[in-house]
Amino acid sequence: MTTATATQPVQNLPDSAFADRGQRRYPVHTKTATCESAAHAVADKADVSVIGRIKEAAHIHGVTVEVSQVLHSTQKEAVAEDQYWGIPDRKQYPLNHEKDIRDAITYLGKHAAQMPYDDRRVFASNLIDAVERTGGDFARAPSMHSRSPPGVASVRRRRPWRSSGNER
Q: Phi then psi for 23, rounded to 5 degrees?
């Protein structure tokens, strides 16, 4: 088995010098390569086993703290970019999956009266967008409009006004 050096081209490295050995991705043969691979692996949503191998390499190279910081900060950025929220300014009430949306519908139905009007309006609007975006079947979910306090039902998307031809 050959040992990897910093000056060796990546194509010439053995499979063991990569965190993803099958695909030969995320080289971990040096401190710098390990740190960079950590950032790329999280951004690419790499498998947990790949992240584990990057952490092992970080331990071997003595950059465990640096890699942990990279992993943590990059994970936060990746999660924040891919999220839909009921109230986006405060990143409250995730609306990414059908379960999130069902939970949000239930929450809004129970707690709308305690929410400030502007939050309630934004939350309801984003909730409707999430339902439309996912195309899920929410017929079994409690209706947001049937028991809504004043102001929430007004968020419902209205159809454009159409002329009946009888205007004066």
A: -95, -5
Classify the phi-psi angles of 157: left when phi > 0, otherwise alpha if psi is within -120 to 50, otherwise beta.
beta
The domain spans of the chain are 10-81, 85-155
Residue 136 neighbours by CB under 8 Å, 6+ apart: 98, 101
| Average predicted confidence (pLDDT) for the chain | 76
Max Cα–Cα distance, the chain, nearest Å: 90
pTM for the model stands at 0.43
HSE (side-chain half, CA atoms, 13 Å) at 142: 11
7, 33 Cβ separation under 8 angstroms: no
Amino acid sitting at position 128? I
Q: Is the dihedral of CA 20, 25, 29, 35 positive or negative?
A: negative
Rounded to 5 degrees, φ, ψ at 30 are -135, 170
For β-strands 92-94 and 85-87, DSSP reports them as antiparallel
Half-sphere exposure in the Cβ direction for 154 (13 Å, CA): 8
Residue 124's Cβ-side half-sphere holds a number of Cα atoms within 13 Å equal to 26
Cβ–Cβ under 8 Å, residues 56 and 17: no
CA separation for the pair 58, 53 (Å, rounded): 9
Answer whether residue 164 shows pLDDT above 60.
no
